[in-house]
Amino acid sequence: MSAPVESRERRDAQSRLLADNVDTASLTTLDRNSVRSLFGPGLSCELTLCTSHGFHADDWYYELGVNQSAQVKQLPLLMIAFDPHQRVKRVFTLTTH
To answer: What's the domain range around 70?
Structure first.
């Protein structure tokens, strides 16, 4: 999550890594505290990008990497929705490749 992203190629490599790991991980078996332990506290999903995919402000998103270049306009995103019992309900990745 904190790796520097200095080029579009690096961003796309990070994006593929995100897609591969989310596909093989079983994030839907986790609860909010487990997600926080694994990834740290997420950012509130108040972005238009989140809401356009059905996420709410109390859901979380994570940017994959730290943008180091003006060439990189969008980082890959991991969005996680929680149910009323604070269990992961849905996972969505916004990839760039």
So the answer is: 4-94
